[in-house]
Recover the amino acids of this structure.
């Protein structure tokens, strides 16, 4: 069966520090992968999606970037975090028209 | 920018009561409407994916209806139980191209024992 791993679960970072969140999927090949964020008072917002290695599409202009160095690995990064980057980040993959989410990372930028 | 609205934002019901809430979405360029349940400290879990106008889906005590012409979907929970407490998200997908969902802010349901 397919599983999705996301880490860390929580992260507190100072403004201006770098960020790296990692997501891996097991039990499937060539999945579509997604990074979503839920900021305070807002719905889940799609940040990036990837249909294959090295293929990244960005949905909103922002301070973040994403990479897919391997088929089942999706990384969310920032060189310098902003206060507005705080939120709950979810990695997901899709199959059969549905999204399957990881457990999420609560990021607090102070 | 696509607008997906959910109401109410939150509600409290007594165990055993039935309840329902609403998701409204653009009525043009419809492809699919998703419902997810997000329990505290867990990952969002897919409940339904609905694609046809008039569609009805059911999973145990939870059911959903879809009206694509007027742009709304209802989620019903019959005989609410404490384990139904969660945030229920709907998400709208337009077009059959890249897989992009626009989520509402959710309805937070609390079932009081």
């Amino acid at each position: 069966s397919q599983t999705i791993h996301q880490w860390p679960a929580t992260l507190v970072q100072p403004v201006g520090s770098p960020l790296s969140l990692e997501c891996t999927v097991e039990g499937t090949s060539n999945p579509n992968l997604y990074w979503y964020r839920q900021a305070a008072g807002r719905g889940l917002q799609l940040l990036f999606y990837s249909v294959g290695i090295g293929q990244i599409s960005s949905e909103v202009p922002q301070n973040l970037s994403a990479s897919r160095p391997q088929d089942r690995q999706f990384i969310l990064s920032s060189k310098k975090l902003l206060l507005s980057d705080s939120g709950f980040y979810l990695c997901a993959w899709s199959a059969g028209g549905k999204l399957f989410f990881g457990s999420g990372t609560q990021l607090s930028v102070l | 920018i696509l607008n997906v609205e959910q109401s109410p934002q939150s509600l409290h019901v007594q165990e055993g009561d039935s309840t329902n809430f609403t998701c409204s979405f653009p009525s043009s360029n419809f492809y699919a409407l998703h419902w997810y349940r997000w329990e505290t400290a867990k990952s969002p879990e897919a409940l339904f994916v609905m694609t046809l106008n008039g569609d009805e889906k059911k999973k145990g005590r939870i059911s959903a209806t879809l009206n694509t012409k007027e742009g709304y979907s209802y989620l019903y929970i019959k005989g609410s139980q404490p384990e139904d407490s969660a945030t229920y998200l709907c998400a709208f997908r337009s077009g059959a191209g890249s897989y992009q969902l626009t989520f509402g802010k959710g309805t937070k349901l609390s079932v009081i024992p």
The two ends of chain B are 40 Å apart (CA to CA). Chain B touches chain A through 21 residues (CB under 8 Å). Residues 37 and 43 of chain B are 9 Å apart (CA to CA). The mean pLDDT of chain B is 93.
